[in-house]
Amino acid sequence: MASFNKVILIGNMTADPELKQTAAGVSVCSFSIAVNRRFARADQGQQNVDFINIVTWRQSAEFVSRYFKKGNPILICGQLQTRTWTDNAGQKRYATEVVADEVSFVTSAAQSGNAPQPAGQAYTPDAYGAPSFSTGSANFEELPSDGDLPF
Fold it and tell me: What is the model's pTM?
């Protein structure tokens, strides 16, 4: 039987990410995000939030630790994973987390405050600026009437 394990989340970082290295030197970053539930009960008066643990590895771990901080929105694509282990007291412990394959910005760096900007200025590409029109003389040729067009 086929199986499928894919998680896509957008939420806000609940704390600054924690970057560590394994004994082999592999980067691993652990953090959690807060994700609002789509539907809330009317009698509660507020929206419910789920706090989801995320783990990223290698380049994704370094990317998250470099560009994200507490409160930033983040998009996560990955797989749900459950781990079990026995702690020092002999108690069996469980953890459910999302192992992120892809991590992305939800907003631009300027909107999230991660991009250095001169005071009062923001970067806007020329393509998004207001169109400019020349008032100089243009050499336009008068076309004959539409009756001569083949369509």
Answer: 0.67
d(CA 110, CA 61): 22
Bridge pairing between strands 49-57 and 27-36 = antiparallel
Give the CATH number, domain containing residue 18.
2.40.50.140
Q: Give residue 96's domain range.
A: 1-37+49-113
Spatial contact of 78 and 98, defined as CB atoms under 8 Å apart: yes
> What 3-state DSSP class applies to 38?
coil
Span 98-125, pLDDT tens digits: 999 999 999 765 565 555 444 444 444 5
Q: Which H or E run includes 67?
A: helix 58-67
138 belongs to a structural domain:
no
Domain count, the chain: 1
From residue 114, give the alpha-carbon distance in Å to each of 64, 86, 111: 12, 40, 8
How far is the CA of 51 from the CAs of 12, 15, 38, 90, 114, in angstroms? Answer: 10, 11, 14, 27, 23
